[in-house]
Amino acid sequence: MKKRDPFLDVLRVGAVLLVVFQHWLMPVLSTDGRTLVTGNALATPGWWVVTWLSQVMPVVFFAGGAANTHSYRAAVDKRGWLASRLRRLVIPVLPLAGVWVVLPDLLLRLEVPPQPVDIAGGITAQLLWFLVVYLIVVALTPVMVKAHERFGAWVVVPLAAVAVLVDVVRFAGLPEAGFANAVVVWVAVHQIGICYADGLLERGRRFHAAMAVAGYGTVALMVACGPYALSMIGMPGAPVSNMSPPAAVLLPLAVGQLGLLLLARPVLNRLAGPTLTALGTRCTTIYLWHMPALVVVAGVTVMGFGYHTPEPGTVAWFAAAPMWLGCAALVLATLVRVFGRFETGGGRAVPSTRDTTAGFVTAAGGLLGLTVHGFGPDGPGLFDGPVPWAVLILTGVALCTRSARVPEPEWAPPQVLSHV
């Protein structure tokens, strides 16, 4: 039996927490009474360097690749594995959608100004992009594991080449082509996680140091000589974004980050414990509700009491940051306590191949629709509001919850690792 890898647990929980804290510290907010004025602290000159470490989506997909490989190989019924992954990822979205389908209209009836309500609904739904992409990556896991078993680490090479080719087309004047890398880039990083699961990265500290130097060196070269932005996250108003859509520069960034993390693995492993395990069982809930927690804090302090964020980098900003984070953390802890119960495996149903496929397509379509349209009042068109997209998500979950048969093996290996 494969033992639990504490390194992956630490990476997964640590990456989600870093995403949360970064999203809470980034907004620069103020109000003129009825309008919310927004900015981004990481747009401060020179702060782009922080994003070379704080852009942790490569770490999330890497850890997911390793965890998916372990759990997929341990699964007795592979179709059941796919359905269980969808349920674990998507069921926690249902209460979020249920709340936000009705909340914007309720706030408007309470005479909350429309502009901050639109912003709140938009940023809450926008983060669902991750689940759209991750569902695709999970669906491709069986194929990518088989490819790895046949070709080893070489599978990453054509994926990286395709990512670069997509960027060439994107920057040559067809920006829409760049969205293909929303799949290609993250599948490539996920594939590196598969390599880790098979021990291909276990080559000693010199190799890990070489990964860090080569990865970050390549990032610096691509930024200096290519069309890529300095910041590894999207900046409002910037002519180029490395994240929306994902650019090929994120691949060497992933290599550099993983080199540093593997060097620090002995220290990171010591962070594993009961608290981290408890957080790990609620990672999806934490991710989904951390922006609503920010909305609550910002709504009360900024729109309610006229608070404005101090100038980023000043003494006042650093002094206010712990209090801001503390208030958001208290609200999030309450939300996780209420809604965390939905983050379960969703049962052991094994739907038919047709239902599983339809469930993945339907759920991903609903999540994508919410990502694009946001949570807001219904518009004139049928698909302008959140209700049809929420129904699609619910339909996808229902399809993957309906059993064609329920296997009862005499012995089944336990799920080794859970993941976001």
Could you describe the 3D structure shown?
- The protein is mostly helical and 420 residues long.
- The chain has one domain (6-399).
- It is 64% helix and 2% strand.
- A two-stranded antiparallel ribbon has the order 1-2.
- A hairpin with a 4-residue loop joins strand 1 (27-31) and strand 2 (36-40).
- The radius of gyration is 21 Å and the shape is globular.
From the structure above, extract its key features.
mainly alpha; 2 strands; 420 residues; globular; 2% strand
The biggest sheet amounts to: 2 strands, antiparallel
Overall pLDDT score: 91
Portion in strands: under 5%
Oligomer: single chain
Spatial extent as radius of gyration:
21 Å
SSE arrangement:
Blueprint (H helix, E strand, L loop, with lengths): L5 H20 L1 E5 L4 E5 L10 H4 L2 H18 L3 H13 L2 H17 L4 H13 L2 H23 L4 H16 L9 H17 L7 H21 L24 H14 L1 H5 L4 H7 L2 H23 L9 H25 L13 H21 L13 H13 L21
Antiparallel strand pairs: 1-2
Helix pairs in contact: 1-3, 1-13, 1-14, 3-7, 3-9, 4-7, 4-16, 5-6, 5-17, 6-14, 7-9, 7-16, 8-9, 10-11, 14-15, 16-17
Task: Give a short overview.
This protein is mainly α and 420 residues long. 64% of the residues lie in helices and 2% in strands.
